[in-house]
Specification:
Number of helices: 12
CATH architecture of the largest domain: 3-Layer(aba) Sandwich
Largest sheet: 6 strands, parallel
Distance between the termini: 29 Å
Strand content: 15-25%
Number of strands: 10
Radius of gyration: 18 Å
Oligomer: single chain
Helix content: 40-55%
CATH class of the largest domain: Alpha Beta
Number of domains: 2
Mean pLDDT: 92
Low-confidence stretches: none
Structural class: alpha/beta
């Protein structure tokens, strides 16, 4: 079915971190409708094998396609790293990921060509940011740091504690030693600890928040394909979760910075069953 301008935009993430991306989209595209799926029942994606993350990404994408979305945003870095090219090839709906927009912004921002990446285990293992950055500039020095403790702490609403500060200190130290002047926040949870990152990295280091870049890319794709909704009417946004809906609603509002009035429960298919069937 050919997408229509009046259809909603779909977005999914492993948890509530992608709501930082939705926030930027709501601000920049106030007339559009959005459907957000948080796969909190299977959070976090970072420690999972890439094949399992890919299966989760396709399952989530199929759900959003069933809701009739006109464009899809893979707001999860791990899912983008594991499955974005395959999703783009398999779906007729335009699909936007978080890796390439962030890489482009970082390559443009870096002055000394030393770029850091803070991300999940799965994202770092995939080397998706490294490949994207090297495709833009082969002379870049890229330091990618897996941060397994950070997203679970932030997802739980713990953004100001000494435990979070200790984790951030540990993860940024290799970037400081490498002399990076630009750091990609390679997980949608990390913008919530931006003040801590700025203090520990120093004011001269540019932090690339992919959420801002993605919102602009979504706007450009909609306009290019004649899918932008006509201005004048304020859009609506709705939520689905594979986990605890009340917990999603409570924590989600902190990430979204807008009201999260209701969250629908989606009883998702077990990803391991999906992988076995594909084999």
């Amino acid at each position: 079915m050919t997408p229509h301008w009046d259809q909603p935009i779909g977005m999914f993430d492993s948890g509530v971190g992608g709501l930082t991306v939705l926030h930027e989209c709501l601000v920049n595209l106030p007339q559009e409708d959005f459907i957000y799926l948080g796969d909190t029942g299977y959070f976090p994606y970072g420690p999972r094998p890439l094949e399992e993350v890919k299966a989760l990404a396709f399952r989530n994408a199929e759900f959003l396609v069933s809701k009739g979305v006109k464009l899809m945003v893979v707001a999860c870095n791990s899912a983008s790293a594991a499955a974005l090219p395959e999703l783009q090839a398999a779906l007729s709906t335009p699909v936007v990921g978080v890796v390439n927009p962030g890489a482009r912004a970082a390559a443009l921002a870096s002055r000394n060509r030393r770029v850091g990446v803070l991300a999940s285990d799965a994202t770092v293992r995939s080397q998706s940011y490294q490949r994207a950055l090297y495709s833009l500039d082969t002379a870049l020095e890229v330091t990618a740091i897996p941060c397994p403790r950070l997203a679970p702490l932030i997802q739980g609403g713990d953004v100001f504690s000494e435990e979070v500060e200790s984790a951030v200190r540990e993860y940024v130290e290799p970037l400081r030693r490498a002399g990076t002047d630009t750091v990609i926040l390679g997980c949608t949870h990390y913008p919530l600890v931006t003040p801590m990152l700025r203090r520990l990295l120093g004011p001269h280091v540019v932090l690339v928040n992919s959420a801002e870049v993605i919102a602009l890319e979504v706007k450009q794709i909609l306009e290019k394909n004649g899918l932008a909704r006509r201005e004048g009417k304020e859009g609506i946004y709705s939520f689905y979760s594979t986990g605890d809906t009340e917990l999603f609603r409570t924590i989600g509002a902190r990430f979204l910075q807008f009201p999260v009035r209701a969250v629908n429960r989606w009883e998702a298919e077990e990803p391991l069953d999906m992988i076995e069937r594909e084999r």
